[in-house]
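Worked Example 4.2. Consider the chain below.
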Amino acid sequence: MPGNTIISPISYQVLTNILLTLLFVSTLHTATAATTSSSQTYRTYVKTACNSTSYPQFCYNSLFPYASEIERSSRKLCKTALSVTIKAANKASSEVPKLLKLRKLTRFEAALITDCVTNIKDSIDELKQSLHAMGHLNGSDKEFQMSNIKTWVSAALTDENTCMDGFDEGQKVSATVKKKIRNSILKIAILTSNALSLIDNLKY
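Applying the procedure from the previous section yields the following structure tokens:
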């Protein structure tokens, strides 16, 4: 009959598929936008938190890849900062001993490197203790646990600085050895310093 349009079963199926596709695309777009918005919020949180540290840009660069895991949790932020620091310290722990194989290494330099390796291992142990305590920060003794955590992280930073100080003060250490040690240890010291700052600002 004129004026009436009859949709065939095939056309109806095509129309249904189109509508479903549009609905899927719309839902996907909304979900993507929400995810992007959340990710940006989490990155902003990390950036703001890092502004309280001595090395804010270094802090942000080391932590923003984990922003979605950290979300807006100060405790997760501190735990992640410690984990990143331990990872860097473990890497240095395997790299620094290789300096003992350098040619023309003096006995004095070898002794300093050996001492430095010990300092790094001590630092790793202290950082691991602080991370473990951070994961069990509950109960009525939170203040006592936080005090221990800060003490361990501070001790780790002291060990790292002790390593570098030995090479800075040593008159018999070559520029090459100093540079290699500094490149390995400075990153850990900065990460540890930042982690300590974040822990100092932790609201528990």
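Residues 9-50 form the longest helix (42 residues). DSSP finds seven helices and no strands in the chain. Compare this with Example 4.1 before moving on.
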